[in-house]
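Annotated sample (chain length 460).
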Amino acid sequence: MSSECSKDARRVNNAVEKEVLHRKTAALEKERHMKAIKEVEAAKALLAREYCQRQIAEVNALKNYLEKKKVIDQLLGTDQRYRKYTIEEIFIATEGFSPEKVIGEGGYGKVYRCSLDSTPAAVKVVRLDTPEKKQEFLKEVEVLSQLRHPHVVLLLGACPENGCLVYEYLENGSLEEYIFHQKNKPPLPWFIRFRVIFEVACGLAFLHSSKPEPIVHRDLKPGNILLNRNYVSKIADVGLAKLVTDVAPDNVTMYRHSVLAGTLHYIDPEYHRTGTIRLKSDLYAFGIIILQLLTARQPNGLVHAVENAVNKGTLTEMLDKSVTDWPLAETEELARIGLKCAEFRCRDRPDLKEEVIPVLKRLVETANSKTKKERSNLRAPSHYFCPILREIMEEPEIAADGFTYEKKAILAWLEKHNISPVTRQKLDHFKLTPNNTLRSAIHDWKSRVRFSNAVVNITG
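Output written by the structure step:
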């Protein structure tokens, strides 16, 4: 009996052990199964991530390809020589054609300052209210897209469908603003004026020698001559320029139907009388501009007045008084060139390339040699420096000790001291008086240095 019980007990124990073993095996199998499932899920997630990344990379590659293709097409396309902007790009850049962005307005429309392609730009919006104006605009775009000259404003792009021209932006405004001291512009030194005249002549000669047809500007005036930050001049608004395929000889007076364009007192009298346009029609306006740069006077009656002054030897009385160091011999020679260019008849005006530019080049070289000597004397006088900061003053103020200091420096000193920074003697009072005479002298000196540096940047 006991042996049978013992056998039964062993069988039960064996069964229990097998059950425990089966359970452990099942648990291990389940653990391996769950681990395998997790590995599969991780692999699926990795594959999904890689797929998404591959899709994003392919999209970016396609985008870059399309952008590069667009640039290449713009550069190499035979039918397009300029960057084509959408009206949306122009609208965003000008902040919805905001009035605050307007920097000019002429007979053809408004000009807005903005930034396109991370580049400062000026957008000219032309009013295309007639089919004729649309045709003229398309012609202007075609002509301007081919012009590349250091003294002609560069066309960066256009939005032909909406009459928008995108030009390079020139920081220092127009020549007109300097001649008549508009917008607080300082007077230009004589040597900058000489150089501007030479540069405009070079730009004009380039337009007149354009191929296959010469270009006549027709609206040359100080307002259409712009200056960059180094006071290099560029001819702007070639919007009224026409391709002249049948230019009349200078010694022939002939009538050709033409719609008069230009600004009163700058229009060639012969062009105004006959409607005949010639290359030398621009030379008349150029002559007026020369005389204006010398006298700072309005154009009406200017030729007659300067001619009388030159004949009587009283030209110095007519010269712009804001310039005190005119080189008289060179200035009179320049005035005579201006008078020749502004002759009433085209045939009496000199040849721009052969007769005018060589003389202007010589005058500019003379000006450069003179300014080199002047630059050596442009060191600031010692009394321009603040005794405290040892820097040139911007707001000079006279203290009780009779010395002049930079305002912020002397105020900071007086907060902690009651003695003079120079004499070390006790100050009678803390009242300050603006030294306006010194401030004006420093301002004039800084202007001379700035203009002189502009010449250095250009001429080396």
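Annotation: Confidence is low (pLDDT under 50) at residues 75-79, 241-249, 251-258.
Annotation: The chain is about 50% helix and 10% strand.
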